[in-house]
Design brief:
mainly alpha, 51% helix
Length: 97
Amino acid sequence: MELLNWKSRASITHTVTANISLTPEDWQIYASRPGAKDAADRLNRAFNDAVNGGKDRLQVYQNVYRVMHELDEFGTTDGEASDVLVALLDTAFPTRS
């Protein structure tokens, strides 16, 4: 169809930005453990920096999961915290139909 020929000459992007400030309770990590607030802040910063740095969904996941692994003593690699990360990714990078 002739109307679709322009698609090869078009580039449309959508910029994603993030500014999250989740608490340890929001991340569902061990909130009563000393240092939990700092751990949540590191997770927030890792997510914000990766998204705002132009990373794609997989790269953001990898960057944040690397930090989660470093903070394992706070339960960051438990299923709950991973579920929070996936929910954040779904919000930042919704699938388009």
